[in-house]
Amino acid sequence: MAVAFLAGCVSPEEQCAMDQRQCTGYGFAPGTDAFANCMMTTSQQRDAQMAADRRAADERAAADRRAREAQDQADQDAWDKRTGQGKYANTSSSSQPSGPSMPDLSGMNCTSTSSSSGSPNNMTTTTNTSCHN
Question: What are phi and psi of 96, to 5 degrees?
Fold first, then answer.
């Protein structure tokens, strides 16, 4: 991880100089095949580590996203349960507006009468409904 961090903070020239110092420190002489192999191996290892770090960061981000989505779903479920919405909605009252419940008048005989009063610009209509068995 430190290699990836350092690689992001240094220029390619600085990184090459660091790799050359490392390979020289291993005892390889510049201009030899062994030195070139050391430089190539060092670069490949750094690239592999950066790729592994990116994959790990992507996996952490995906896990965090899944955890947030699960928490959001749990929060929504708890809200629905508290408020009687979603899968907790009462299907028998789902078609009726919220507020005071209306009595079931299906077994009764009801009649309505309407009357209007006032001027054409200010009309008031009154409706009276009476029901009996």
Answer: -95, 145
> Which class for 53: exposed (0-12), middle (13-18), buried (19 or more C-beta within 10 A)?
middle
- Report the C-alpha gap between 75 and 81 in whole angstroms: 10
Boundaries of every domain in the chain: 2-83
Q: What is the DSSP string of 5-70?
A: HHHHHS-HHHHHHHHHHHHHHTTPPTTSHHHHHHHHHHHHHHHHHHHHHHHHHHHHHHHHHHHHHH
Sequence letter at residue 120 = P
Amino acid type, 34 = A
pLDDT in tens, 20-63: 999 999 999 999 999 999 999 999 999 999 999 999 999 999 99
Q: pTM for the whole thing?
A: 0.49
What distance lies between CA 117 and its chain's CA centroid? Answer: 57
The two structure tokens encoding residue 86: 């979603």
